[in-house]
Amino acid sequence: MKLPTGKVPPDILLERILPKSGYRREDVVIGPGIGIDSAVTRVGDKYIIISTDPITAATSLIGMLSIHITTNDVVASGALPRWFLSTMLLPKDITIEKLDEIIEDMHRNAEKMEMQIVGGHTEVTPYLESPIIVGTAIGVSDKYVTSGGAVPGDVIMMTKTVAVEGTAVLAYDHEEKLRERGISASVIKKAKEMIYKTSIYPEGRILLEGFRERIHSMHDPTEGGIFTALNEIADASGVGLKIFLDDIPVDEITITVCNALGVNPYLLLSSGTLLFTVERGYADTIRESLMKRGIRATVIGEVIKDKEKRILIDEEGEKTLPRQEKDEIWKLY
Questions:
Q1: What sections of 238-323 are H helices per DSSP?
Q2: Which helix (H) or strand (E) holds 122?
Q3: What is the torsional sign of CA 252, 254, 260, 262?
Q4: Is 118 helix (H, G, I), strand (E, B) or coil?
Q5: Residue 226 Cα distances to 192, 243, 274, angstroms
Q6: Are 272 and 160 in contact (CB under 8 A)?
Q7: Which residues contact 112 (CB under 8 A, 6 or more apart)?
Q8: Residue 34 reports pLDDT greater than 80
Q9: How many Å apart are CA 4 and CA 154, to the nearest integer?
């Protein structure tokens, strides 16, 4: 059987990969699972939170993206990142100037987070068409948060808008196609600039330092977009969801780019958005706290008890919340 492009399907993960995780150690608090992006281990009275992610679909600013995408999972698990390692696989025609650009991006963005790059591996590899970076980020915390902590009655909130990363990647990698389809240079420029919003470190720090006890789950939407991430929260928590489509914020730039290329923004790479569930009475306070820092925060739904129900409410009424493991971006590659 040939595997599809993108994330390995959940049934393959459950049947063939997740059961084979080596020796089972008692200091592993959270191991691999569907919808779980970080491992949590215990050392003494502290939790070590570890996450790894590749940059594969993007070709521009991949040094910055490798920092943002990997550290996002650590932040969403309840820790601020301290250490970072990277494996860089480079195509044989790469220039030293391009390598310098990647390294400088990684250095500058790690420095902003007070995180040190402590190691990794770099090599020129045959058969690659573009660089691939696999990053690993590590943080330490007294407590941890998971995507599996949502409880009935929670409200579901998100920061920024959907498809932040996906909009920027499409603008960089398909600029010529967008121009051919009538999208203006100014719109493409604004779409590209969204790549600088792909970190959830700023909002994560505010939430962890001010509202940790009130937040029950957090999740960083990546492949499959906001709809897939919502399903992953439900999977991991054993709950149902009621989502209001009209309340999910979508930037006009994202709508323009996605319409031009024929992709669904709700199923498109969404790093830069933070999903979290919180006690109902604290939603307004949290929203105001984030808005004061210039970070948009929106209530988009609620957690319900019936785990069989994943409800999306739009102008036509109630339907099942879509789920698509293969990200929309792969339609264009």
A1: 252-261, 283-292
A2: strand 116-124
A3: negative
A4: strand
A5: 20, 11, 10
A6: yes
A7: 201
A8: no
A9: 35
Residue type for 311, please?
I
**Which range among 36-45, 80-89, 101-110, 179-188 shows the weakest confidence by mean pLDDT?**
36-45
How many helical (H) and strand (E) elements, i.e. helices and strands, does the chain have? 10, 13
Residue among 27, 230, 256 at smallest CA distance from 147: 230
Task: Quickly list DSSP for 31-56.
Answer: --BTTB--EEEEETTEEEEEEEEEE-
Closest CA to 212 of 305, 287, 276, 274: 276
Q: What domains are defined for the chain?
A: 23-141 (3.30.1330.10), 155-332 (3.90.650.10)
The 10s digit of each residue's pLDDT in 68-84 is 999 999 999 999 999 99
- The string of pLDDT tens digits covering residues 102-154 is 999 999 999 999 999 999 999 999 989 889 999 999 999 999 999 989 999 99
Q: In what order do the strands lie in the sheet with 215-219?
A: 215-219, 275-278, 155-159, 297-304, 240-244, 310-314, 317-320
DSSP 194: G
